[in-house]
Amino acid sequence: MTYRVAMDIGGTFTDVVAYDETRGTYVAAKAPTTPGDLAEGVFAALGRAVADPAAISFFVHGTTQGLNALLERKGARVLLLMSEGMRDVYSIARGNRDRMFDLHYRKPVPLVARQATAEAGGRLDWRGEELRPLDEAAVREAARRARTEGFAAVAVSFLFSYVNPAHELRAGEILAQELGDDVMVVLSHQVAGEWREYERTSSAVLDAYTGPVVRRYLGRIEERFAERGLGVPVQVMQSSGGVVNAAFARRNPLQTLLSGPVGGTMGGVRAAALLHRPHAICVDMGGTSFDVSLVLDGRPDIANEGSADGFPVLMPLVNLHTIGAGGGSVAYAEAGGLRVGPESAGAVPGPACYGRGGTRPTVTDANAVLGRVDPEWFAGGHMTLDLAAAHRAVGELAGQLGLSPLELASGICEVANAKMAQAIRTLTVEHGLEPAQFTLLAFGGAGPMHAVDIARELGVEEVVIPRFPGAFSAWGMLGSEVRRDFTRQFFTPGDTLDGAAMADALGGLAGQALDALGEQGVHTGRRRVEHAVDMRYEGQDYTLTVPLEAADEPLREDFRTRVADRFATLHERRYGHATPGAPVEFVALRTTALGALPDTAAAPYAAQPGEDPWAGRVKPVVFGDMSYETPVLRREHLAAGDQFAGPAIVVEATSTTVVPPDATVTVDAGGFLVIKLGGTA
Question: pTM of the full predicted structure?
Fold first, then answer.
């Protein structure tokens, strides 16, 4: 037997999903993440799913190493090399305020101080033509400085390198000669070949800041897997929702920034297709964070630019909104009120009920006090919860606030639910989307425990819990495609468009894209490309990305009318208005290369033989201000077509689903739990 394996290394747990290519079956497992040596937790989780690494035919994983280094400010020391006269571009940044009415708002402190910025003479004009040659002596001086002052990376960002990269390429050659492999060299046009100097420079700095950390991590993982007998290349999830091999990820570490959470979005796309739900809100509640993303018309919501902890980044990435609200989020008193998160107990010591020395109450402890978890079969029976420790932690804080332990436990869950509902509104209501028109797809180790309450806050009437919810992000990675993205600036007014020139440029990008898939080992018959163009109304600053039917579409006589109509439709959907007939501009061309991986279609869902699911235990569980005698069901014994009403607790190896009294559940043909909400409990 051979297995296709995906792994999601989270802040609290490491999740694994293995697909048996012979039987068409899945198995999921998890183990606590081991921050001191991630490989220990990786192999503990893997050993529960696949006995022999040599039987793995494909391995992909998501990592948050780069993101964690950024969030914790533990990245590399970076020297920034700019065009002469432009050293302050990164420090000045933009003048806008992200939060206009926040009196305490401050711009993020730059990752590179002004003192760590150097300049090199030489200049190109806006067409990419050389005005002055590159000052190679200045580049060598920057290399000397990087070597003597102990910089781990050098980021190079020259004016107009996205049009003509000659100066950056030559600077990269000199830096490589002078510094060897000891210092990472990042060229801005290779990270983000697009206009806007600050955003391109920021992207290059982020790549340089997180790159050494990601490179060391990937090197260690590959080495450790090779020692264990893994005979296939390690693949890595990208922020765009596609897969690349570790060799490419080492050269382009910024692409992995959102690697872990994006797997859940891609799983949401697969699940939405299986459920025939075109729109879904994907919520991933783990031990440390709560991640929200959307599936719109059956596709992931992907933008061509975004931000990472307040710093702009130019690259395709799934629109994710993350807050510090997870099962390990710590509850505390502040100014006489209850606060929950963003601080997390993490994997060590973890919530008090984990019995690892934690003493502060968390969301998981609150659920334990309310009876909403099974202490004897938590994490598939691999952990036994210490309920007494949970009661002590919650009881101590309850005493400070003058509440009973049950009142405080309910309050902790309500505060956490309100924060998570607001995070969902950030991606929906604030963008003109009505949450009630979506299905809420909940996963992560803690997501199914809170999903129904979150849905009720938003007016959502249907919640779906997939199979293996605690390892759903890993499941999503198995169904993703290899992806490479290419961009070329193509600025021209709409009324002077040269369709032949645009088609020729798109054809060139298509050739690059298909070759890139070949480098990733994708078979010719599994390669395809998609094209789009960035457009705007004349006078606008920002653009919308408009899909194209084919690379040769610009050759058609009615192309300008058709693409302008398409742009107006997107503008109406995004901003609530459009101006048909107004002059438009083309700004950039985009080509995405996609390589289909072998199908991982599951065998028909069937309940595992065993005990009658309704013959299990009944325990008291608190909902609202009442305690209900609630059945505890083992999910693997539920059959397709089963229906039942709440209250109920459904336990499985990777998560626990809480069904309140006002909800009903149906097990669909694919094994999904489809929960319909009723009135207020």
Answer: 0.87
